[in-house]
Design a protein that fits this description.
By secondary structure, the chain is of the alpha/beta class. The protein has two domains: about 130 residues, Response regulator (Rossmann fold, 3-Layer(aba) Sandwich), CATH 3.40.50.2300; about 190 residues, Rossmann fold (3-Layer(aba) Sandwich). About 35% of the residues lie in helices and about 20% in strands. The longest helix is centred in the middle third of the chain and has 16 residues.
Length: about 375
Amino acid sequence: MGKRVDKPIRVLIIDDSALVRKVLTAILGSVQGIQVVGTAQDPYVARERIKSLNPDVLTLDVEMPRMDGLTFLRNLMRLRPMPVVMVSSLTARGAEVTLQALELGAVDFVTKPTLDLSNTLETYRDELADKIRTAANVRVQRKSASAAPLDPKHSVDEVVPVKPLRHLQTTDRLLAIGASTGGTEAIKDVLLDLPPDSPAVVIAQHIPPGFSTAWAERMNRQSRLLVKEAAEGDRLMAGHAYIAPGDQHLMIVRDGARYLCRLNHGEAVNRHRPSVDVLFRSVLQAAGTNACAALLTGMGADGAQGLKELHDFGVYTVVQDEATSVVWGMPGEAVKRGAATEVLPLQKIAAALLRAAGGAQHR
């Protein structure tokens, strides 16, 4: 259940750029149900305005003078935990700092508005508003309420058409994981629990270009698996994990006895590219019952249909439970559709996938 029915979500914008503060204030000022109650040019001013204005959600620049965004966020989460949406530059440094912010407890992030925003203003406004609404319903340290599903703009059928399926005779196993809001940290937890001889893992996480590259490199440094951003034609290998690049669908195809990565820049599905539904359907068509799949925390409904198709074909499917999800939108929708073989807390999902896949032992 959300925190409010008729009261607007009170937002404090923290950014050292007067132009960005002005643009964000104007964008959010046009959104019903969201009220910008103030702005701050640095964390010291923000600290006082949080006390006096009591906002529901902060938007926070990742790099600011006097005190950087990460230091401020670390102190905030220790002293007064509250929902934060990071506003990040599309640079390697911006991506790395943003990923650190998500580790520290930020709910989500958007890229900084650009001066040529006029052609994409509506899309940017909708994304920012959706993430602020979601953040407002997140209990930062514990569980969150479900977010309302987003209306799909395009069907998965436009990217991966339905075709007759058959049970494939092979021993090659494959693990497929999908997530959105809160997913960078949830997927990290699953990967850290997988052994070096794990079946190949394919991942669709809603994330922009550039950020997916930095995230894959970060996961590779931390995991016992070899983690990479998927490239066209990559052969899936045990002990490896392949992350869908931002703004491209990741599809798995079969070439004889091998699984290969295919990248697709087709229509966004459920408003997302990469889409979890696209990955899951391609995994079903390529691997059938040799696959296992997990749907983790996320806003909306992307992945629920694909997980249902896998489940109905006899594939083991696991959904993250509400208590450990940042947002129980995507997993909650999958449960509602009867798509889950099991619903488990995050810390048990890796072991469950390995048991279902057989062979590799959790350790």
